[in-house]
C-alpha cells in the first residue's frame, strides 16, 4: 500500500511538472520579485562564495535536494541516483518520509542508499509529526543523518484517501521530538507554506529551522486528488501561501528559514536568498530532470545552477548568499497585495 503510494507520488509529481510548464508557461509568484539593476554593483568572481551558515550549520552551498521518496523498489533506485547527484555536486539532501521503513523494515535499503552513495555529505532524515521519539532516533540512525526534517502536511493528509484526520497532537509531538534528538530539527511544509505565526510557534517548541515549503511548484492537493476515486477536492488546488509570500511573511522570524516550493532556476534561488532564506530546496524540478534525462544530466544541471548562482551574486555585488539580503528588490502584483494585507513593509 505505502510502496504503491510512493510510486504514485513520483508519477503524478512528474506529470504535474510537465503540465505546469505547458499550461502557465511555468509562472509562479517568484516572478513578482525582481532585483533593481545597479550597473556598477558587480564584484570579481573569485571574491564570491556560495557557503552558507545558519543555526550552527555550515553548508558549502545554499542549495539542497529536498525530501522526496523511498519505500518501494523503484523509489530506492531514485534515491540511489539522488544520493549520487548529491555526492558529485556537494549539495545537502533530504530523504523522503521514512514511515514506510517503520512499517516494513525490509525496505530500509531504499532509504539508506542515500547515505551509502553519499558517505560524507550532509544528509537529512524525514519523519511525520506523529512519529515517536524512538522512531525519530531510528530514522536518524539509519541514515547517520546530520539533521531531521519533520514534515507538516495537513492539507495533503486531508485530500489523501488513506490520510490522517487527527492533527491536534502534532505540535506537542514536534516539541517532544525536538527535545529528544541530538541533531537539529527542521520542520517543513510540503508546498502549502508556513505562516509567520506557525514559524513563531515552531521556535517556541524548540525547532531550530523552518523550511517554509510554499505554493508554486509541486501541489500535493492535486496529486492526492488524482489518487482519489472521485477527484472531488479540486477546489483545494493551489491552497496556501507561495514561497515568496512566506519569505516576506517571515522577515522577523526568530529562527533561520529555508525556502522551498516552486524553485525553477538559479534566479529563483537568488530571489529566495535575497528574501532571507539561509538555503533553498528543490524537489520537483530535479526529479523531472532525473527521470527524463538520467543522473548525469541531473549532476550537470545542479552544477550549472551553482555556477549561475555564483554568476548572479557577482553581478548583484553579493560576496556571500547572505549578502543578497542587502540587494534592492521590487515586489509586484498579488505579492504586493499580500504584503499590504499582512502589514509587511
Ligand atoms: C515530495 N515531498 C515530500 N516532502 C516530505 O517532507 N516528505 C515526503 O515524503 C515527500 N514526498 C515527496 C514526493 C515527491 C515525488 C515530491 C515531488 C515531493 C515534498 C517536497 O519535499 C517539497 O516540499 C514539495 O515538492 C515542494 O517543492 P517543489 O517540488 O515545488 O520543489
What does this entry look like structurally?
This protein is 44% helix and 13% strand. It has 14 helices and twelve strands. The strands form three sheets. The chain has an eight-stranded parallel sheet. A two-stranded antiparallel sheet has the order 1-12. A hairpin with a 2-residue loop joins β2 and β3. It is globular and about 60 Å long. The mean pLDDT is 97. The structure holds ligand FNR. The site of ligand FNR has 27 residues, from α1, β7 and α12. This is Isopentenyl-diphosphate delta-isomerase. It is found in: Cytoplasm. Involved in the biosynthesis of isoprenoids. Catalyzes the 1,3-allylic rearrangement of the homoallylic substrate isopentenyl (IPP) to its allylic isomer, dimethylallyl diphosphate (DMAPP). It is an enzyme of class 5 (isomerase).
Amino acid at each position: 500500500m505505502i510502496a504503491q503510494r510512493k510510486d504514485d507520488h513520483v508519477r503524478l509529481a512528474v506529470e504535474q511538472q510537465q503540465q505546469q510548464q505547458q499550461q502557465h508557461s511555468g509562472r509562479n509568484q517568484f516572478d513578482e520579485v525582481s532585483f533593481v539593476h545597479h550597473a556598477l554593483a558587480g564584484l570579481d568572481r573569485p571574491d564570491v562564495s556560495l557557503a552558507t551558515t545558519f543555526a550552527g550549520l555550515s553548508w558549502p552551498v545554499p542549495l539542497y535536494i529536498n525530501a522526496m521518496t523511498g519505500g518501494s523498489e523503484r523509489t530506492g533506485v531514485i534515491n540511489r541516483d539522488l544520493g549520487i547527484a548529491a555526492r558529485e555536486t556537494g549539495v545537502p539532501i533530504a530523504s523522503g518520509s521514512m514511515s514506510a521503513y517503520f512499517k516494513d523494515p525490509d525496505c530500509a535499503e531504499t532509504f539508506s542508499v542515500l547515505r551509502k552513495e553519499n558517505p560524507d555529505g550532509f544528509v537529512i532524515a524525514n519523519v511525520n509529526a506523529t512519529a515517536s521519539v524512538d522512531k525519530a532516533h531510528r530514522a536518524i540512525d539509519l541514515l547517520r543523518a546530520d539533521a531531521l526534517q519533520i514534515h507538516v502536511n495537513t492539507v495533503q493528509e486531508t485530500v489523501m484517501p488513506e490520510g490522517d484526520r487527527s492533527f491536534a497532537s502534532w505540535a506537542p509531538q514536534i516539541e517532544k521530538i525536538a527535545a529528544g534528538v541530538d541533531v537539529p530539527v527542521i520542520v517543513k511544509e510540503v508546498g502549502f507554506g508556513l505562516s509567520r505565526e506557525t514559524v513563531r510557534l515552531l521556535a517556541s517548541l524548540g525547532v531550530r529551522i523552518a523550511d517554509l515549503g510554499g505554493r508554486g511548484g509541486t501541489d500535493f492537493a492535486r496529486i492526492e486528488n488524482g489518487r482519489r476515486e472521485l477527484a472531488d477536492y479540486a477546489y483545494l488546488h493551489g491552497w496556501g501561501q507561495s514561497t515568496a509570500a512566506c519569505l516576506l511573511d517571515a522577515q522577523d522570524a526568530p529562527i533561520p528559514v529555508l525556502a522551498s516550493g516552486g524553485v525553477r532556476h538559479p534566479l529563483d534561488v537568488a530571489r529566495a536568498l535575497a528574501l532571507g532564506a539561509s538555503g533553498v530546496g528543490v524537489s520537483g524540478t530535479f526529479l523531472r530532470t532525473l527521470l527524463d534525462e538520467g543522473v548525469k544530466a541531473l549532476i550537470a544541471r545542479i552544477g550549472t545552477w551553482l555556477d549561475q548562482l555564483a554568476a548572479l551574486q557577482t553581478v548583484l555585488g553579493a560576496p556571500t548568499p547572505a549578502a543578497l539580503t542587502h540587494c534592492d528588490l521590487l515586489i509586484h502584483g498579488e505579492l504586493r497585495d499580500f504584503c499590504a494585507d499582512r502589514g509587511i513593509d
